[in-house]
Amino acid sequence: MASGTRLAKERKTAKDDSFAMANQISMPALTSLLEEHRKSISAALSTELRSAFASLEAKLDTVQATVIDFEACIKLKNKNIDLEGRSRRNKIRIVDLPEAIEGPRPTSFFLDVLMEIFGDQVLQTPPKVDRAHRSLAAKPRQGDQPRPVIVCLHWHQTKELIVREARKRRNNLKYRDVLIRIYEDYCPKVVEQRAVYRDVMAKLYNLGLRPALRYLAKLQITQKNGTKKCFSSVEKADAFAGAQPTSCNR
Question: Which end of the chain is less enclosed by CB atoms within 10 A, N or C?
Answer without folding.
Answer: N
